[in-house]
């Protein structure tokens, strides 16, 4: 930690507590939700000028929600949820009726939706005040939050470095103690990768476990909403609030999910006897992992063994093709999803002076409103879906996806979870990769394969790299609808690992 960022990592009395501790104090009326929410709003005012985690701060709405929780408790009502009164930062890709939803893009600058996303509605129903909307790569396309039209977010561990992406704002809010809870989305690692770079916890739930209704889509077959916090238990508590079937989302799982809170609390006891942990042969053989990251990972695996886990080597033969498949499937879906931003219904409109046709207004608006990375992916996707190339590119990528899912299925017959580093290096400098799209894409090499399979994954801090003193993350993967395994293993490891400096 550098001297210049020490203050960003030094929380106050309330802002340094876990969400579980805050919830208990609020429920017992030892402290009010309004006090807790004000403390975090004050913290935002104090440090977010250096971090830029937030695009919009909802001061009045957050305090009103907090007062409503306090009034209910004073009247003798039961808390609406185990997290009632604990404030949260929401990634600016979820529809909110009382705050702008920009997706980090100029094309939606100032747009306030007429409805709440299901995740937003569930947070409100749970009595969770929403502090504001967090910065992100435009339409969730990026790995560093540098693609935001509103400027980059900085990593509280070193403000010259990225907090990751696309959900860097949510992770940075947690790491700078301006929020005890956050929500992100994970299309190829956008929850887990920022968690790794900021020493926070992030979970991509099983595809379909959390509703995508009101989530502005990037790639519909890959996107998944998920919880972020500073501890595994807090993340599990938030997971339980937002998960569940939603008939408004056609991809929502109509089946009860596992009890992730019970799994986290059981895991914290520290016994992993009987748990089989897989090491992917192809990851072990792979190049490009920094020495400090590799050392941290090996120490984490040794810790899991000490907790009683059995470590088994598994193979995912098709994984070498996953990056290429992902970057054909994702832009193809982006090309389709972003066609809706046509300047006709909402958002930015350029050239509407009566001298341009509707087609010209659409072209001018999309040229002015979309950033370079979004345009790049739209063009790649449009080409991959075009006549004569569909089978060769998009169709072939989907076949690879099927083969990769089969590889994972075979591996999970041998093990309960798979572990790897979350990212190949620690946080890189802002500007270092922004002009090299391939280098940026390669940064998600460990995270994106599980998205192609529709499975779940977690990043939990595994310490600080001996190379540069920056955070390193341990990635834990599990099959679909086995999210509880993530929380059991993650909580056991977290308890054994101890605090991170």
UniProtKB/TrEMBL annotation:
<keyword id="KW-0436">Ligase</keyword>
<comment type="similarity">
    <text>Belongs to the amidase family. GatA subfamily.</text>
</comment>
<comment type="subunit">
    <text>Heterotrimer of A, B and C subunits.</text>
</comment>
<feature type="active site" description="Charge relay system">
    <location>
        <position position="166"/>
    </location>
</feature>
<protein>
    <recommendedName>
        <fullName>Glutamyl-tRNA(Gln) amidotransferase subunit A</fullName>
        <ecNumber>6.3.5.7</ecNumber>
    </recommendedName>
</protein>
<dbReference type="Pfam" id="PF01425">
    <property type="entry name" value="Amidase"/>
</dbReference>
<dbReference type="InterPro" id="IPR020556">
    <property type="entry name" value="Amidase_CS"/>
</dbReference>
<feature type="active site" description="Charge relay system">
    <location>
        <position position="91"/>
    </location>
</feature>
<dbReference type="InterPro" id="IPR036928">
    <property type="entry name" value="AS_sf"/>
</dbReference>
<feature type="region of interest" description="Disordered">
    <location>
        <begin position="143"/>
        <end position="171"/>
    </location>
</feature>
<keyword id="KW-0648">Protein biosynthesis</keyword>
<keyword id="KW-0067">ATP-binding</keyword>
<feature type="domain" description="Amidase">
    <location>
        <begin position="35"/>
        <end position="486"/>
    </location>
</feature>
<feature type="active site" description="Acyl-ester intermediate">
    <location>
        <position position="190"/>
    </location>
</feature>
<comment type="function">
    <text>Allows the formation of correctly charged Gln-tRNA(Gln) through the transamidation of misacylated Glu-tRNA(Gln) in organisms which lack glutaminyl-tRNA synthetase. The reaction takes place in the presence of glutamine and ATP through an activated gamma-phospho-Glu-tRNA(Gln).</text>
</comment>
<dbReference type="InterPro" id="IPR004412">
    <property type="entry name" value="GatA"/>
</dbReference>
<dbReference type="InterPro" id="IPR000120">
    <property type="entry name" value="Amidase"/>
</dbReference>
<keyword id="KW-0547">Nucleotide-binding</keyword>
<dbReference type="InterPro" id="IPR023631">
    <property type="entry name" value="Amidase_dom"/>
</dbReference>
